[in-house]
């Protein structure tokens, strides 16, 4: 019996694609950590570009039309994921999904991928924090920008921990769906449109992305200096990071693995 792409053969191809990708990422970090770290920094740089665009749009619109400001931010931020998927680099939140597939398939152990996640997370931080810091000290829309980012930070830091965790879980579930679409689709135009829309689905409701928040809080600290609440920011980042891990690795990764795993 011959199966088409939507049949069991297609499922097995999806499993092998994701499993091989996860293993290659692990092996790159293990064998050439400098290169892997550089790829992680570059992903942060790309997401920093998206932060500059979305933050500038939000800054220019939030006083006159708050709803338009939120839609503009949500509609533009997806360019970061598009660039990362098309040009290639290492995003922590995406790796929480892809590297769990070989773990579920018993080709890797969970403890093996933890160091890779840590390297990727730190590399993303270096990249996005650098771009956002340079953006802040450039003086672009300085006073209005400071007002906007502080307002956004106040909203983010007024949180209930359970609600924050759920927002982070949902966020990376959506982000990883977008990344998976990017892996499966061949046409770059269609890929770009769908990924932009998928990312809009996490930004518009105010869900929480740990790497994007690194950029947001870098701008906040630039605006507030020593007046920033570093303790609350740290708690926020810990909860969101943990939630993102669950969203990509468990909420999407586990049921998808059960769907596409090869028959024994």
Automatic annotation (TrEMBL):
The gene name reads fnt
Location of this chain's protein in the cell: Membrane
Primary location class: membrane
Which residue spans traverse the membrane?
36-61, 67-92, 113-137, 157-181, 193-212, 232-258
Species per Swiss-Prot/TrEMBL record: Thomasclavelia ramosa DSM 1402
| A GO molecular-function descriptor | formate transmembrane transporter activity
Q: What protein name does the entry list?
A: Formate/nitrite transporter
Q: Which domain of life is it from?
A: Bacteria
Which controlled-vocabulary keywords does the entry list? Membrane, Transmembrane, Transmembrane helix
Topology in membrane: Multi-pass membrane protein
Task: Family membership, please give it.
Answer: Belongs to the FNT transporter (TC 1.A.16) family.
GO-annotated cellular components:
plasma membrane
């Amino acid at each position: 019996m011959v199966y088409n792409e939507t049949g069991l053969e297609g499922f097995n191809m999806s499993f092998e694609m994701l499993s091989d990708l996860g293993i290659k990422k692990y092996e790159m970090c293990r064998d050439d950590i400098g290169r892997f770290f550089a790829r992680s920094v570059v992903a942060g740089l790309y997401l920093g570009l998206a932060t500059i665009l979305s933050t500038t749009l939000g800054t220019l619109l939030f006083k006159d039309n708050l709803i338009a400001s939120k839609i503009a931010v949500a509609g533009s931020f997806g360019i970061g994921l598009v660039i990362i998927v098309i040009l290639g680099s290492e995003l922590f939140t995406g790796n929480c999904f892809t590297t769990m597939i070989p773990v579920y398939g018993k080709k890797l152990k969970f403890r093996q991928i933890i160091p890779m996640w840590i390297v990727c997370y730190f590399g993303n931080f270096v990249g996005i924090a650098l771009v956002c810091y340079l953006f802040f000290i450039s003086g672009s829309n300085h006073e209005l920008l400071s007002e906007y980012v502080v307002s956004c930070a106040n909203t983010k830091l007024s949180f209930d921990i359970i609600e924050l965790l759920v927002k982070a879980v949902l966020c990376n579930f959506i982000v990883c769906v977008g990344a998976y679409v990017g892996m499966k689709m061949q046409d770059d135009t269609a890929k770009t449109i769908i990924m932009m829309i998928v990312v809009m689905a996490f930004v518009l409701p105010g869900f929480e992305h740990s790497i994007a928040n690194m950029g947001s809080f870098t701008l906040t600290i630039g605006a507030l200096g020593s007046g920033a609440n570093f303790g609350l920011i740290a708690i926020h980042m810990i909860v969101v990071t943990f939630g993102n891990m669950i969203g990509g690795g468990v909420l999407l990764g586990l049921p998808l693995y059960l769907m596409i795993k090869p028959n024994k």
